[in-house]
């Protein structure tokens, strides 16, 4: 009788644990992926990876497969309401799926049950060698022009080894403490035809490893750019204008043109480049200000191609943190 009672208790305990485990399991989700190129044509045989979840676990469970002739692939598995993944194919830049976030489930299934994610694979075009650097340095002086040589990756003499003031920074700051300050910066150029222009990555390219336009525009550059940062007060830290390290922004940035020469109304020399993300100025923990920006510049005069081959950086001796890794 005692044995029977222990057996019954054991069965009830197992059933209880099973019911508890069932209640902790993720609902199932189904995700369909449709892959096209920049011209809207289906991309077959692209490898799709979707990460779901192991049931009763936080571990990812990858489901992989190839797109069909119509560029389609679908997968199903358990999910904690978020799905992501990637799409890859030789000759194209890697693309992410972005985040698919479900908000409701029924009968153990996330809704909507047939979610489709559109992915654009960008073909690798003609990557070239560029001088590329992630700048993280202290501005040499306040309230006076400080030139930065993009080819050398350094401040110009007497603050560094640079020879050409491609970008000229004049920075003013009113700094009292960590959360009570104001910074104003102006970026100008050496040549009258130099300048920069705000750029925005194409919406379809936001999840691509290469998210910018391939060429800089020939015209439309503005001769100066102003930057303003300020703290809000001593108690609420910083306001919405404060965002120091914005250099990783994959959706906006700047094209620039430097070393421009014109003869008889015709541009005879110029170097084109891009700054990905923003130019950030940080006055904290420094006597002047830290400046942060990531740039790529084509050193071939009049060549507007800015599709970079990461294996061909014309700047040598950079540290890991100074080296950009996105094309």
Tell me what you see in this structure.
The strands form five sheets. The protein has a six-stranded mixed beta sheet with strand order 16-18-19-20-11-21, with no helix packed on it. Strands 2, 3, 5, 6 and 7 form a five-stranded antiparallel beta sheet that branches. It is globular, with a radius of gyration of 27 Å. The model is unreliable at 1-24 and 234-243 (pLDDT under 50). It contains one helix and 21 strands. The longest helix has 23 residues, at 2-24. It is mostly beta strands. It has one helix at 2-24, and strands spanning 28-36, 47-53, 60-66, 72-78, 82-88, 95-96, 100-101, 104-106, 109-111, 115-120, 128-138, 146-149, 154-155, 167-177, 180-188, 195-200, 225-230, 252-263, 266-282, 290-297, 308-313.
Number of strands: 21
Mean pLDDT: 86
User: Could you estimate the helical fraction of the residues in percent?
Assistant: under 10%
Terminal CA distance: 74 Å
Q: Catalogue the unreliable spans.
A: 1-24, 234-243
Number of helices: 1
Q: Could you state the order of secondary-structure elements as H and E?
A: HEEEEEEEEEEEEEEEEEEEEE
| Most strands sheet | 6 strands, mixed
The strands making up the biggest β-sheet line up spatially as 16-18-19-20-11-21
Based on Cα principal axes, name the global outline: globular
Topology record:
Blueprint: H1 2-24, E1 28-36, E2 47-53, E3 60-66, E4 72-78, E5 82-88, E6 95-96, E7 100-101, E8 104-106, E9 109-111, E10 115-120, E11 128-138, E12 146-149, E13 154-155, E14 167-177, E15 180-188, E16 195-200, E17 225-230, E18 252-263, E19 266-282, E20 290-297, E21 308-313
């Amino acid at each position: 009788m005692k044995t029977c009672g222990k057996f019954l208790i054991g069965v009830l305990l197992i059933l209880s644990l099973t019911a508890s485990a069932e209640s902790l399991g993720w609902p199932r989700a189904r995700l369909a992926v449709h892959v096209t190129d920049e011209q809207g044509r289906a991309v077959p045989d692209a490898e799709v990876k979707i990460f779901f979840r192991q049931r009763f676990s936080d571990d990812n469970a990858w489901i992989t497969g190839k797109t069909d002739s119509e560029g389609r692939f679908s997968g199903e598995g358990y999910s904690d309401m978020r799905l992501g993944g990637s799409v890859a194919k030789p000759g194209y830049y890697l693309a992410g799926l972005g985040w698919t976030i479900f908000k409701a489930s029924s009968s153990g299934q996330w809704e909507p049950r047939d979610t489709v994610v559109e992915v654009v694979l960008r073909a690798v075009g003609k990557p070239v060698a560029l001088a590329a650097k992630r700048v993280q340095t202290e501005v040499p002086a306040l309230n006076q022009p400080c030139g930065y040589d993009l080819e050398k990756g350094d401040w110009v003499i007497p603050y560094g080894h640079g020879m050409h003031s491609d970008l000229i920074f004049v920075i003013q700051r009113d700094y009292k403490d960590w959360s009570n300050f104001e910074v104003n910066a102006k970026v100008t150029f050496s040549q009258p035809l130099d300048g920069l222009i705000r750029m925005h990555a194409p919406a379809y390219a936001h999840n691509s490893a290469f998210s910018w336009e391939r060429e800089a525009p020939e015209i439309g550059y503005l001769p100066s750019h102003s930057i303003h940062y300020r703290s809000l007060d001593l108690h609420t830290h910083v306001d919405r204008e404060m965002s120091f390290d914005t250099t990783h922004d994959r959706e906006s940035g700047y094209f620039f043109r430097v070393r421009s020469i014109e003869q008889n109304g015709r541009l005879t020399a110029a170097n084109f480049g891009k700054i990905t993300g923003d130019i950030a100025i940080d006055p904290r923990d420094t006597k002047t200000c830290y400046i942060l920006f990531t740039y790529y510049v084509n050193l071939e005069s009049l060549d507007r191609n800015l599709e970079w081959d990461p294996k061909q950086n014309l700047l040598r001796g950079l540290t890991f943190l100074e080296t950009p890794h996105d094309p």
